[in-house]
Amino acid sequence: MPDQASDRTVDTADGVPGEVPPAVRVEGLWKRFGEQIAVAGVDLALPAGRFIGLVGPNGAGKTTTLSMVTGLLRPDQGRIEVAGHDVWRDPVEVKARIGVLPEGLRLFERLSGGELLSYTGRLRGLPGEEVDTRAAQLLDVLDLAGARHKLVVDYSTGMRKKIGLAAALLHNPQVLFLDEPFEGVDPVSAQTIRGVLERYTASGATVVFSSHVMELVESLCDWVAVMAAGRIRAHGPLAEVRGSARSLQDAFLELVGANGRDTGDALDWLGGGAR
Ligand SMILES: Nc1ncnc2c1ncn2[C@@H]1O[C@H](COP(=O)(O)OP(=O)(O)OP(=O)(O)O)[C@@H](O)[C@H]1O
């Protein structure tokens, strides 16, 4: 059972020999789609036990990177380790230790929420009784208990995110990867998800999540990586990446070179007064 190690004390991304390895180590990662270079030589070490935000503008390469890191997309080049295991040479070891909530998650639509969790837990090799206990608790905490018999196809966008999150957490993974977990989620549910994730990282587990919402990243994460045009522009503890900027949003705009960008004279036809 890949339950979490009790003492993860590493405080730096690189760690100390003999101690817990970084949650994720990426070296020389590349991915092209035809002429399009989506990921252009990413090197990254994400420390264990942190709440980590991967941020970047549209098309920066976040989803492509997370897909390669979680073993869903084969890199053209590069090496990826999760919790000390090579993602592409040792996929079974890695998959037992990770939970993934991908973008555009496909779920088994004709199962109810409860059935989906039972099925996922058994696929993960958990004993039936344990699955039932954990599933009931997760459904309860995520405010889905009333919808446990409803088919997933009839779930709302936010409910789908929450059941996807429950399925990703059921086996108590060491590292949880979430692609835009708060998109389409109402503020109450967002607060609930946040509480679950904070509790999870407080116990030593690692969350890596991608988002465009800087306020959210700033309030949740203690470590961030900023990506633009397929490369990592900055990474490190939140305060370090923010530097002297007023907010992470300002630092981000500076880093991705978007500060001061406006529409100029373009769109001068737009608006009620210009007829
Ligand atoms: N399957 C694919 N085929 C062709 N191009 C792709 C494919 N997947 C991604 N790309 C391209 O790779 C680049 C990076 O895309 P990616 O989805 O990783 O960015 P992102 O940072 O997740 O963006 P967003 O924040 O908009 O979701 C984009 O230019 C995108 O068009």
From TrEMBL:
Gene3D superfamilies, A to Z: P-loop containing nucleotide triphosphate hydrolases
One Gene Ontology CC term in the entry: plasma membrane
One GO term (biological process): response to antibiotic
Membrane topology type: Peripheral membrane protein
A Pfam family hit: ABC_tran
InterPro entries according to UniProt: AAA+_ATPase, ABC_transporter-like_ATP-bd, ABC_transporter_ATP-binding, P-loop_NTPase
Keyword ATP-binding found: yes
CDD domains named in the record: ABC_DR_subfamily_A
Species annotation: Streptomyces marianii
Keyword Lipoprotein: no
The protein's name in its UniProt record: ABC transporter ATP-binding protein
Record domain ABC transporter: where: 24-254
Top-level lineage group: Bacteria
GO molecular function, one term: ATP binding
Subcellular location: Cell membrane
UniProt keywords, alphabetically: Antibiotic resistance, ATP-binding, Nucleotide-binding, Transport
